[in-house]
């Protein structure tokens, strides 16, 4: 149950030093998730076994990081990620819709 016969993902990742500062780094990541049809329990129909249809989801991510001189923080990173880029409606588990287009951003540090 809940395991598709066919599934997979395609991922492309790139990393490049930009040269604005010594040691700076730009990374970009693209992922396409492919999940096939699978059987699942439908809570809205008395937990009968139903077919949960296939779906595809695209995600994008990017980050820029640079080193810091001195102190206990060695590197700072600014990042952003978009999940479900095309805002598709699907259920990973029947009866529980996946999140719509989702944007996340933040700041991180390497200690």
Short description:
The protein is mainly beta. Helix content is 0%, strand content 60%.
Question: Can you describe this structure?
Answer:
It is a single chain. The chain starts with 6 loop residues before the first strand and ends with a strand. The model has no long low-confidence stretch (mean pLDDT 94). The strands form 3 sheets. The chain has a 5-stranded antiparallel β-sheet, with no helix packed on it. The chain has a two-stranded antiparallel sheet with strand order 3-4. Strands 7-8 form a two-stranded antiparallel sheet. The relative contact order is 0.21. β5 and β6 form a beta hairpin. The protein has 111 residues and is mostly beta strands. It has no helices and 9 strands. It has one domain. The chain is elongated, with a radius of gyration of 20 Å. 0% of the residues lie in helices and 60% in strands.
Instruction: Count helical runs.
Output: 0
What's the SSE pattern?
A: EEEEEEEEE
Distance between the termini: 43 Å
Weakly predicted, low-confidence segments: none
Bulk shape = elongated
Averaging pLDDT over every residue, what do you get? 94
* Coarse structural class: mainly beta
Specify the helix fraction band: under 10%
- Largest sheet properties: 5 strands, antiparallel
**How many domains?**
1
How many beta-strand elements?
Answer: 9
Q: What portion of residues belong to β-strands?
A: over 45%
Spatial extent as radius of gyration: 20 Å
Across the major sheet, the strand order is 1-2-5-6-9
Short key terms for the protein model shown above:
elongated, two-stranded antiparallel ribbon, 5-stranded antiparallel sheet, 111 residues, mainly beta
């Amino acid at each position: 149950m809940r395991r598709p016969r066919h599934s997979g993902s395609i991922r492309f990742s790139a990393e490049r030093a930009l040269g604005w500062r010594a040691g700076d780094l730009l990374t970009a990541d693209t992922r396409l998730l492919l999940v096939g049809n699978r059987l699942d329990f439908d809570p809205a129909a008395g937990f009968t076994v139903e077919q949960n249809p296939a779906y595809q989801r695209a995600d994008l991510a990017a980050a820029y990081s640079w080193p810091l001189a001195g102190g206990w923080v060695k590197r700072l990173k600014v990042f952003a990620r978009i999940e479900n880029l095309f805002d598709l409606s699907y259920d990973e588990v029947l009866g529980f819709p996946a999140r719509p287009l989702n944007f996340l951003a933040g700041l991180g540090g390497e200690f």
